[in-house]
Amino acid sequence: MSNTSPSRARGTTHRQNGKPVSVDLDSLPVTITDIERAAELLEGVIERTPVAHSRALSQRLGSEVFFKCENLQRAGSFKVRGAYVRMAKLSEEEKKRGVVAASAGNHAQGVALAADRLGIKARIYMPLGAALPKITATRDHGAEVELYGVTVDEALAEAKRYAEETGAVFVHPFDNEDIIAGQGTIGLEILEQVPDVDTVIVGVGGGGLLAGLSAAIRAKEQELGKKIKIIGVQAEHAAAYPLSLAADALVPLKKVSTIADGIAVGRPGQMPFSIIKELVDDVATVSEDDIARALIFLMERNKLVVEPAGSVPVAALMNGKLKEEYGDLGTVVCVLSGGNIDPMLMLKVIQRGLSAAGRYMTIKMMLSDRPGELATISRIISENDANVTGVDHTRVGGSLSMGDVSITIDMETKGVEHCRQVISALEDEGFKPIIVY
């Protein structure tokens, strides 16, 4: 952690959407002084998470790529940083009243762990569909958990009602200066651990992490004598920031749908937005398949278990769009923001990721109900070196004519080109396979 004295007033100029932007850093809601003081508060409380070099992704990108492994942080994500700073600064009278928060997982565990360290009573509202491992982990840290509502927004409203009714201090997941300052300590660590960094890529939900990290890095650029690209990443079906930045105003989404539940936020935080719009170069988006592929890549090639929200920076590198837009990204640091993935979700994401990478394929086709048809299909698949893992053979159904059979085949394949080879071989024999996924 940095223990340097507070920095004097300074400004920064960087390019945003291709245009130079000048910013008085001391005019922002969170300054480098706030972040450095947050770092002092966190000494001995959190882990100084490691930075891991990815040889596989470096070779693929043509630049050096490192991962800031907040998936190895206490409570499994970066959230404990901001939660602890926020709660450590409460008055003794506020601490006696206790705290309340709402979350589907990471913020819940961060608040619960911080409350346990500080001896504060914590009540956490979680939606009914929250993953059981996250509920259990939150309770194991000593917090009282109440399941309420179907969505996080409903749980959030109930947490605020409870705060008003009881006087408990509401701990917002991202729209608070102490929360943002705590998350910003990651930026200080990155600059210390990878001093030659040229580009930092961060997943974005409400924006607390991106806001704090960008405030820290922009304040240190003068000392480093270089400009650093800062790029946020959102899931394309939960991307409120690109719309809001384009409108220069908060634009809430009507619907949010993504496997990256840690960044499934429909409305940016007002305070993070006010910082991000001034300091961040760009906010990109990635697809669900991009996220699934990245998660598989991190497990297979880097031996890292990361939740979908934590894998989005890697997804943004792997889909190639950032390199197309910016060219050489130089030395890159991706923040792997968390590792709290539900095993049931992991199964689904792995299957989707394998399918997106052409490593797993399910096809469906119609056959004539006569001997030898299935044997012919099996022969073709075997000759093309794919491995059948499941077959569903159905003679009955509203869409089936008399004498027809519907067959669905699951198989292991070796990549996108191999999938095309198998499909082509079946078509050459007169079959009409349809790829289900």
UniProtKB/TrEMBL annotation:
- Which residues lie within the region annotated Disordered? 1-23
Q: What is its EC number?
A: 4.3.1.19
Boundaries of each ACT domain copy? 362-437
Please give the superkingdom of this protein's source.
Answer: Bacteria
Q: Which InterPro entries match?
A: ACT-like_dom_sf (IPR045865), ACT_dom (IPR002912), ACT_ThrD-II-like (IPR044561), Ser/Thr_Dehydratase (IPR050147), Thr_deHydtase_catblc (IPR005789), TrpB-like_PALP (IPR001926), TrpB-like_PALP_sf (IPR036052)
Q: What class of enzyme is it?
A: lyase
Q: Which family does it belong to?
A: Belongs to the serine/threonine dehydratase family.
What does this chain do? Catalyzes the anaerobic formation of alpha-ketobutyrate and ammonia from threonine in a two-step reaction. The first step involved a dehydration of threonine and a production of enamine intermediates (aminocrotonate), which tautomerizes to its imine form (iminobutyrate). Both intermediates are unstable and short-lived. The second step is the nonenzymatic hydrolysis of the enamine/imine intermediates to form 2-ketobutyrate and free ammonia. In the low water environment of the cell, the second step is accelerated by RidA.
**What is the protein named?**
threonine ammonia-lyase
Organism expressing this protein natively: Rothia mucilaginosa (strain DY-18)
